[in-house]
Amino acid sequence: MGHRNLSLPRKMLVFLFAGFLLTAAGCRRPGQTAGSRDIIEPQGKYLDVAERLEEIITHEMAAKGLSAFSISLVDDQEIVWARGFGTADPDEDIRATAKTVYRIGSVSKLFTDIGIMQLVEKGELDLDSPVTEHLPEFRPENPFDKEITLRQLTSHRSGLVREPPVGNYFDDTEPSLAETIASLNRTKLVYEPETRIKYSNAGIAVLGYVLEKTQGSPFAEYLKKAVLVPAGMENSSFEPEASIMEKLAKAYMWTLDGGVFQAPAFELGTAPCGCMYSTVIDLGRFLSTIFNGGEGREGRMLLPETLEKMWTLQYSGPGVKEGYGIGFGISELDGHRRIGHGGAIYGFATQLFGLPDVQLGVAAVTNLDATNSVVTRIANHALKLMLAVKENEPLPALMLSDPVEPGLAEKLRGHWESGERAFELILREGSLYIMGPGFAEVRSAGDNLIVDGRLAYGTQIEVKDNQLIMNGRTYKKIPPPEPEPVPKKWLGLTGEYGWDHNILFITVKDGKLHALIEWFFSYPLEEITEDVYAFPDYGLYHGEKLVFHRDAQGKATELEAASVVFRRRTE
To answer: Of 49, 78, 228, 523, which is most buried, counting CB atoms within 10 Å of its CB?
Structure first.
């Protein structure tokens, strides 16, 4: 994700592991200055809001196996509640607080885009000028009669690949930003600029390099001085400073077979798009800054009219209400304009939301990979609770699911079909999971079942007369089909590729070659030739290809997936 995109749907598969032991969050009590508090206690009208959220957060942490969770609520210029839950470092028994540091993934992009807009305000940059005016060496293959501009990059409309060949999400060699951007000259535009949203970590990295080159200062140093300091973000940085790293939460990954390991901590070559460190208090201060028309605790970050430009949808047609502005994701919540961004980077999941017209906001983050569905759901409900307070309405409830009763779970497990569609219900460590296009936990919600896992929520399943009704279709339980043999032409392609920290799996399912990438994305591949395949027209890598390179015996020794080379692993 920097780094993965979580403003839009991110992962398709979710797998279970035994939950971490949760402990009550420790904190200092009020009476200290706001800058030194590990918790900001709610007052007055927000007491009930905090109480509701504490119940929801502790329930979801236990249900989803989250080790740590931190949250802050913002009402205009005041952080009205901020605290942490669980343990930031179980080995050292360090509890999570409102000042625990997390990696915030793609939320980093907002700050890079703001750095660009500051220079636009000053007249030093033109959003609609070609990037090559500032980076003449930037020359990815462009077969279209339209040059790449800064505006296109800020709104994911440049047509660039998602990841650069060097410095990408998988690359743990920590190359420089210059080396990362140089590698993009080996790529070809996926789409004609401006024609389609193509979420690109590479594109935001290019913006960071524009800042570095035009300002004559390393990106991280410049961005901290120009953007983070004015907003009063005292515990935030784009590089691993010692004072920040000592407060960093340990983060965790999990694997297909239920294993757990500590997340890798290397710095990405695409730092401007996903390598920022921060706390929920600092993110709360950022929200207060934008609610204050760009005036921060330590100076002006942006002009009010610039923020309004950033909150305006780019390249969208009439009637469109969701998409990208300049940097910010734009959407609606209960009729209110909502701006923000999500983030995911190895072991961390973040959501930042603001309702600028009523000046309410929330920042929430946890330290377990692939849990953005959980974080986003909590953040959305926090906004709904705050809106209810603002509008003097009763506080809304949030449905919390329970495990499926063991007897029913046992009865339901098996193979279910409806025409050409099918899925499996399986039991794993006492919990029921649905395995079809994705893999997610199924839980009880009143009289029905609901998909409610770490990265999937909302699909309801009705049990009726030994049948299941889901998305308007009726499924019947039948014996599973016999597995099909792998076609001879694919025998040299299947297997594992990549790194210990991020393995790509090539398998065969339902008569198609599949790529399981970034642990959780399972994509059916469309064959172009026996060695070249296309990713489907959805997900992270739409428009891009996967190419196998075989040895003399016909066995693939490596593959190139969306410009990133994965070497076959020893099996």
So the answer is: 228
